[in-house]
From TrEMBL:
The keyword Protein transport does not apply. This is Haloacid dehalogenase superfamily, subfamily IA, variant 3 with third motif having DD or ED. Belongs to the HAD-like hydrolase superfamily. CbbY/CbbZ/Gph/YieH family. One of its GO terms (molecular function) is metal ion binding. Keywords: Hydrolase, Metal-binding. PANTHER family: 2-DEOXYGLUCOSE-6-PHOSPHATE PHOSPHATASE 2, PSEUDOURIDINE-5'-PHOSPHATASE. Coiled coil: none annotated. The keyword Hydrolase applies.
């Protein structure tokens, strides 16, 4: 699949083993032995507060935003890749993969760009210009297929609906309003609400707290490995719907993988979802 234009590398069927970072520790493809709960949280929510509660059913769905509700990630990759191409360099796919679904790695991208350029760059100006171009590229984008259907299904089931995004609130809320989807969401949790974004679980724990549910009662909908790892660290079930940018990346433990949200029947999936040991 070719995402960028001239001088922009293509993303093809490569499978990447990612290294995740959390609180100064690093794990290849997530910590071994316990990928669901018990991970350190550097945000404002303590996962221990949820222990000891018994829940018999799913009661909430929590959406990611970028790449799941709206395809902003194709434009994001393209604008960064074109920036690198201007300096006769390529944006490494593994570096971009670490940034997808997280806001904690943009400085690392610019560090790499400066190393390729051989001198310091005006990062503030470059980022402003890149963001403006990204906004223009996604201006005509519509909600991805199946998004509205799943939102309506959740409402029919009586589930609470939240959102956990590593992007800032103005970005997310502005696009939701434009797409006519804002009214579906009871809670929006964004990078302003936590100290660390995905793959740290703080955003998902904060969203569960906001919705008034135990993390084990919620299912997260994600498109990126960073987001999926954050959801599993929070103790949630996770359904992934990789997009054009993320479908070639390696995901860790998830509960279901789909090609499109159009394929998801929440009621049927919930009925076949096994009850966890801690919910018995």
């Amino acid at each position: 699949m070719k995402i960028g234009g001239r001088g922009v590398p293509e993303i093809r069927g490569a499978s990447i083993c990612l290294t995740w970072y959390n609180g100064g520790e690093q794990y290849p493809s997530g910590p071994s032995g316990n990928r669901g709960t018990g991970f350190p949280v550097t945000g404002s929510v303590d996962p221990k507060q949820y222990k000891g509660e018994e829940n018999q059913m799913l009661r909430a769905v929590i959406f990611d935003f970028d790449g799941l509700i709206l395809d902003t990630e194709t434009a994001g990759y393209r604008t960064f890749a074109e920036m690198f191409a201007a300096y006769d360099a390529q944006l490494p796919l593994d570096l971009w993969a670490r940034a997808i679904g997280s806001s904690d790695h943009h400085d690392e991208i610019y560090d790499h760009l400066e190393a390729a350029a051989g001198h310091k760059l005006d990062r503030e100006t470059l980022e402003r210009e890149r963001r403006e171009k990204k906004i223009s590229l996604i201006a005509r984008e519509k909600a991805l297929p199946g998004v509205r259907s799943v939102l309506e299904q959740a409402g029919e089931l009586g589930w609470k609906i939240g959102l956990a995004s590593s992007s800032d609130r103005a970005w997310v809320e502005g696009h939701l309003e434009k797409l006519g989807l804002r009214h579906y969401f009871s809670c929006l949790c964004n990078r302003e609400d936590v100290e660390r974004t995905k793959p740290d679980p703080a955003l998902y724990l904060q969203a569960a707290k906001c919705l008034g549910v135990d993390p084990s009662e919620a299912v997260a909908l994600e498109d990126s490995p960073n987001g999926a790892l954050a959801a599993k660290r929070a103790g949630m079930r996770c359904i992934i719907v990789p997009n054009r940018v993320t479908r070639s990346l390696s995901f860790g433990e998830v509960d279901l993988r789909l090609s499109s949200l159009e394929e998801l029947n929440l009621r049927e999936w919930a009925q076949t979802c096994p009850v966890r040991e801690e919910q018995r």
